[in-house]
């Protein structure tokens, strides 16, 4: 995922790091979302194909095809086994995927990042802010992280407003590299577990 993040890197004690890896390996559900499976590739591709979803997200496969999306899912299955990543989908049971959450975990720093999107029909109704707040609480309290580090493109006003509004601290700017090697500038925010208001 992003180069140069997290900005804050406090080494976790070995037993803490092991507990975080175990929590990641044991994660199977996140509210109404379930782990992504290789057979979700076509439905996930349909979600990713909308520019309102893929344009702001540097970590999605490029080019976007059913094969690259399946490989993206399979890579996350391996990341989960290593205790370093998770991919969840919101599956209403009608063949569509209405959202996804992609977790990058750095157990050695007790830190993590989440990227994700809602189906465009759900944007701008407060759903993202509510869901993100619940997910941040889950990352701190269930995965056991001390730090969440988030990025957004300079154009991604919605995510910027969301993170500023939740009290995340702006930490500067980094260059993020996409899977095809192209880059984009990203603003960076961090939140410590001790400072998170747990309003969710
Ligand atoms: C990012 C995302 C999950 C946010 O969810 P959402 O439900 O659309 O956002 P919300 O309705 O909770 O709005 C969040 C903030 O953006 C503002 N906002 C919403 N739509 C907006 C728009 N079109 N223009 C400007 N601001 C907007 C809201 O007013 C709110 O700010 P406020 O709390 O200061 O009022 C969703 O928009 C999405 O999936 N976007 C595409 C992918 C993406 O950008 N992912 C994040 C980077 S990984």
Summary of the model, kept short:
The chain is an alpha+beta fold and 200 residues long.
The coarse silhouette is globular
Q: What does the radius of gyration come to?
A: 16 Å
Measured by DSSP, the beta-strand proportion falls in 25-35%
Number of contiguous helices? 6
Q: What name is given to the CATH topology?
A: Aminopeptidase
Give the CATH H-level superfamily.
Gcn5-related N-acetyltransferase (GNAT)
Could you give the distance between the termini? 27 Å
The average pLDDT is: 96
Binned, the helix content reads 25-40%
CATH architecture descriptor name: 3-Layer(aba) Sandwich
The strands making up the biggest β-sheet line up spatially as 1-2-3-4-5-6-8-7
List the helices and strands in order: HEEHHHEEEHEHEE
Number of strands: 8
How would you describe the oligomerization state of the chains in this entry? single chain
CATH class: Alpha Beta
Structural class: alpha+beta
- Largest sheet data: 8 strands, mixed
Uncertain regions spanning at least 5 consecutive residues: none
Number of domains: 1
């Amino acid at each position: 995922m992003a180069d140069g993040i997290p900005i804050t890197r406090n080494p976790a004690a070995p037993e803490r790091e092991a507990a975080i890896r175990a929590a990641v390996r044991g994660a199977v559900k996140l509210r109404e979302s379930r782990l992504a499976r290789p057979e979700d590739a076509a439905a996930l591709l349909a979600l990713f194909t909308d520019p309102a979803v893929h344009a702001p997200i540097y970590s999605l496969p490029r080019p976007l095809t059913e094969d690259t999306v399946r490989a993206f899912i399979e890579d996350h299955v391996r990341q989960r086994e290593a205790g370093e990543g998770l991919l969840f989908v919101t599956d209403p049971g009608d063949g569509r995927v209405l959202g996804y959450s992609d977790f990058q975990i750095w157990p050695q720093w007790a830190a993590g990042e989440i990227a994700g999107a809602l189906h465009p029909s759900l944007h701008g109704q407060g759903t993202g802010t509510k869901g993100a707040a619940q997910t941040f609480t889950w990352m701190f309290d269930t995965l056991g992280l001390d730090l969440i580090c988030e990025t957004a493109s300079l154009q991604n006003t919605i995510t910027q407003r969301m993170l500023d509004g939740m009290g995340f601290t702006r930490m500067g700017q980094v260059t993020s590299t996409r899977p095809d090697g192209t880059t984009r500038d990203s603003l960076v925010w961090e939140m410590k577990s001790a400072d998170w208001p747990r309003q969710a």
